[in-house]
Amino acid sequence: MQRWHGLDDVPARWGRSVVTIGAFDGVHRGHQRIVEHARTAAAALRLPVVVVTFDPHPDEVVRPGSHPPFLCTPSRMAELLAGLGVDAVCVLPFTVEFSRLGPDEFVRAVLVERLHSARVVVGSDFRFGHKAAGDVALLAELGEKYDFSAEGVPLLTENGVRISSTGIRARLAAGDVAGAAHDLGRPHRVEGVVVRGQQRGRALGFPTANLETLPHTAIPADGVYAGWLSSLDHSGRELQRWPAAISVGTNPTFDGRERTVEAYALDRDDLDLYGMHMATDFVARLRATVKFASPGDLVRQMHVDVDDARQLLPQSQAGES
Predict the structure, then answer these.
(1) CATH class for the domain made up of 2-158
(2) Taking the model in full, what pTM does it have?
């Protein structure tokens, strides 16, 4: 899959394509549905599929300080989109100047002059142009002017509730990682570099990988979770994975103040992970964070947590490559 950072990266000889546009944070099941519609249209026209997205998130530019927590990193988003059959991702720098483009200017500059759109597929709630003045109806009207067709895909709902990045963030904030996984179509992933923490876990018999996460990462509510710990290469591709018990919180038994994400690879005390790029995938919440009366009480509960995690995680999915 090709990755373009700005319109200047689009190859000069790029031909016609089917384009879909959006933040695509999380590439959740609703996004997957839109991409599938784009792929179907592209297959019929024998054209490639291009995803147009933005960096930084438009909310941060339009309303500074309102940046929503990320559901995935840019490299993870690209990986997920490639897995859906997308041929190219074009990341547009979202600046104040860009935000002031009118609907016609946006369509002409992005969809017509550089991507040569034959069809544009978006969610039915899609808005574009300065002050979100454009909608799907206007996009179709501009398509007639500039020789492309437009399709607004109905949003994915279940039991009357729309699947959305906002809803998934709310589930994670409540610790409902199973619900978030259902909406995402996979467990929620948090990435980071392993740094040295207080090393209490090793002293207690449960050595953990302490992840230094990226700013604006969507981290589940404080608690203990069953999930997976994976090592990643420089591009974000998974190299190894282990079933894990994951702790999110401030370590209240030791009066900690800094919120951390720590993962213990089940039954492994021989892993040297410092400095490595790692990921934790959250499968199920085991319990809330508790301040124990003593380290001994904490250790006894940690044994229970590990046993619970082991029961929940299929060992057949663990592996090293």
Answers:
(1) alpha beta
(2) 0.91
